[in-house]
Design a protein that fits this description.
With 488 residues, this protein is mainly α. It is built from 18 helices and 7 strands. Helix 8 packs antiparallel against helix 9 (239-259) and helix 16 (407-431) packs parallel to helix 18.
């Protein structure tokens, strides 16, 4: 039971027994089944007993009797999510005032009542990352005592349901499973459970297209799969959870690849502790699903939006998926460029959002928005080459764009003068590249004076100077942070 729980959600378990004798005998039975869990060393091993005792206790109990310091060392191991210690057997200890947020299951084989029972159950329900709740497995039938304890709790001013029967989680799981199946009505994923990893990836483009073709399909799938996953984690290893686990894995894979952006790096902690299902002995999780591989494409270099790659996307039969890939690719590229050229990034971001709004409102077809996005991708590439054609490096071009935002400035000063101003701005901002933009307001004010002086020196239109100064300072802040990061 515990191993199946851990297949669905990483975590730990506490077994509460009636007596120290039972604790020792239960430990012996468990390690007979899983000998690799045992260790005589407190610093290693997957299972321990935490109990008090004395030298007069039976000889076979002595390995489990520890002083306070040794018990505290085991407690520290148990609190660490990554520590191999996953299962602890207790009689009285650790049932009150002991917090292990990653604890997700408690097996109770001891009579408890009133606040003691409430305190014990509270051990397993601490908030932790993606854990949807804790599971209490009752071997004695203490439901009546729990009702009494809850009654005392509510009479004392407490609110909300502290516990719910597992069958409610099973019912919710099946309901959400049915909703997910309805979202994929007309799409055949029956081969998912027996397919190889490569075959699963080949199945994903069609699945994504099916969801994206629906009104708000991605949003509906995301929320429904999240609710299904939470209910599944609480229901496993119920037979109904085992029956649908392959389907859950498929739904999660599609949700994962639709949610992932091309520049997003999945943090190990997110992957390790996210709820995940075992599907045909293979874990489906975010770190093994690549959005481009799932679309049947070779992942491109984001800094080089080649004509060949754009043509490959344009020829994809899954038109809605092509839109999805293009907008994620472009947004990722714009995020990267916003760190160097604020004005250019803002301009292209607005153009992309305008195209996508028309597409989402069904004002244009997928084929048309694909053409618009590909044109924007090519314009992005051309914008990057502008600096070379004008004799400006990337930093100078960023300030040139900030100054060029005013049409009247271009008309009055001309292109050549704006280039001179851009070069002089870069030189002055570089001298202040170490500015702490959140703490050093006095230096920010100094730079503002420098910018205004340079604009006046070259005759920048007076009525446009204030707006230009704000834009230039915003650009200076972005570049300064980049320079400081590279210097570090």
């Amino acid at each position: 039971h515990f191993e199946k729980r851990c297949e669905a959600m990483e975590g730990k378990a506490l077994i509460v027994s009636m007596s120290r004798r039972i604790c020792v005998e239960l430990y012996r039975e468990i390690v007979a089944l899983r000998p690799e869990w045992h260790s005589d060393d407190d610093a290693t091993g997957a299972i321990k007993i935490v109990m008090t005792g004395s030298a007069t206790d039976p000889l076979e109990w002595q390995p489990h009797i520890r002083n306070k310091n040794r018990r505290e060392a085991i407690a520290e191991r148990f609190k660490k999510p990554d520590d191999p210690l996953r299962l602890v057997i207790v009689r009285d200890m650790w049932l009150t005032g002991f917090d292990v947020p990653c604890l997700h299951t408690m097996y109770i084989d001891k009579y408890m009542h009133a606040h003691g029972l409430m305190q014990a159950i509270a051990r397993v329900n601490r908030v932790f990352r993606d854990k949807p709740g804790g599971l209490v497995v009752d071997y004695l039938g203490i439901a009546q005592e729990l009702k009494k304890a809850l009654s005392t709790y509510t009479e004392g001013g407490g609110e909300g349901d502290l516990t719910r029967p597992q069958h409610e989680a099973v019912e919710l799981m099946l309901r959400k499973h049915e909703e997910c199946c309805e979202l994929f009505a007309g799409f055949d994923w029956s081969g998912w459970s027996t397919a190889t990893s490569a075959a699963r990836v080949e199945l994903l483009p069609g699945a994504q297209e099916h969801i994206l073709a629906q009104q708000e399909g991605r949003e509906k799938l995301s929320s429904t799969v999240a609710e299904l996953s939470h209910a599944f984690a609480l229901a496993v290893p119920h037979e109904e959870a085992i029956r649908i686990r392959d389907d859950v894995g498929f739904f999660q894979a599609v949700k994962s690849v639709l949610a992932k952006t091309p520049t997003q790096q999945v943090r190990p902690v997110d992957t390790e502790h996210s709820i995940r299902q075992i599907v045909s002995n293979a874990i489906v999780s975010e770190d093994v699903v690549d959005i481009f591989a799932a679309a049947g494409l070779t992942k491109p270099d984001l800094s080089i939006l080649s004509d060949e790659f754009l043509a490959e996307i344009q020829s994809m039969p899954q038109r809605n998926l092509a839109v999805e890939l293009l907008q994620k690719l472009l947004r990722g590229e714009i995020r990267t460029r916003s760190k160097r050229n604020v004005v250019q990034a803002r301009k292209f971001s607005e153009l992309i959002e305008a195209s996508l709004r028309r597409y989402q409102n069904r004002a244009v077809e997928a084929a048309q928005v694909i053409e618009e996005l590909i044109a924007l991708a090519k314009d992005l590439q051309q914008a990057l080459r502008r600096g070379e054609e004008m004799g400006l490096n990337e930093d100078e071009l960023a300030f040139y764009d900030a100054l060029e935002a005013s049409d009247s400035a271009v008309q009055v000063l001309g292109d050549g003068c704006l280039r001179k101003i851009a070069r002089e701005l870069v030189e002055n901002v570089r001298k202040n590249a170490s500015i702490d933009w959140t703490e050093r307001e006095n230096i920010r004010a100094k730079l503002r004076v420098i910018v205004k002086r340079i604009l006046r020196k070259y005759g920048y239109p007076p009525d446009k100077q204030e707006a230009a100064t704000r834009t230039v300072l915003e650009q200076a802040e972005a570049l300064s942070e980049g320079w400081a990061a590279r210097a570090a």
